[in-house]
Amino acid sequence: MSGLGLPVRLILTPGQRQDITQAEALLDGLSPKVVIADRGYDSKALVQKIEAGGAEAVIPTQSDRSVQRAIDRDRYKDRNLAERFWAHVKQYRRVATRYDKTARNFMAFVHLASIMVLLR
Questions:
Q1: pTM, two decimal places
Q2: What is the pLDDT of residue 104?
Q3: Cα-flanking dihedrals φ and ψ of residue 7, to 5°?
Q4: Which stretch of DSSP H or E encloses residue 36?
Q5: Hey, CA dihedral for 36, 37, 38, 39, is it positive or negative?
Q6: Most CB within 10 Å of its CB: which of 13, 21, 36, 54?
Q7: Which residues make Cβ contacts (< 8 Å) with residue 9, sequence separation at least 6?
Q8: pLDDT value at residue 17
Q9: Which CB contacts under 8 angstroms, 24+ apart, belong to 98-101?
Q10: Closest CA relative to residue 62, chosen from 38, 84, 85, 78
Q11: DSSP string spanning 60-79?
Q12: Please, which residues have CB within 8 angstroms of residue 59's CB and are 6 or more apart in sequence?
């Protein structure tokens, strides 16, 4: 998501696959100043890659880790922009329930729903 809560890149994963597996693909070719993500993206390798690219990683550390990383809590509050965007996209029943059998058709409608949300 951009700083305005607009999607920059969308990647579809199977339901049983963790989102962090696509984190590097989402960042490839981009040069963000800040990367904000939830605890599901907490990985030393990912944080190091983000910081090596010159960006700030605003990703809370998982609670079971012995060393907790400090983050900017005020900046982390901007993550709600992405959550609100997905809440709007999921208002389209076809996205929320995933009736489409093929990933291609589902992703096409996700793009269409995203455009509709952006045009509001």
A1: 0.77
A2: 92
A3: -70, 140
A4: strand 34-36
A5: negative
A6: 36
A7: 26, 30
A8: 76
A9: none
A10: 38
A11: PPPTT-SSPPP--HHHHGGG
A12: 35, 36, 37, 38, 39, 41, 42, 46, 47, 69, 71
Q: Around Cβ 76, how many Cβ atoms within 10 Å?
A: 16
Which residues, including other chains, have CB under 8 Å from residue 88's CB and lie 6 or more apart? 117, 120
3-state helix, strand, coil in the chain (%, to 5): 50, 5, 45
Amino acid identity, position 33: K
Residue with tokens 């597996």: 21
In residues, how long is the chain?
120
In the chain, which residues have pLDDT < 70? 1-5
> What does the pLDDT look like over 9-28, one tens digit per residue?
888 887 777 878 888 888 88
Predicted local confidence at residue 91, as pLDDT? 93
Pair of tokens at residue 77: 């509050």
**CA 40 remoteness from chain centre:** 10
Place of tokens 């605003």: 58
pLDDT of residue 1: 60
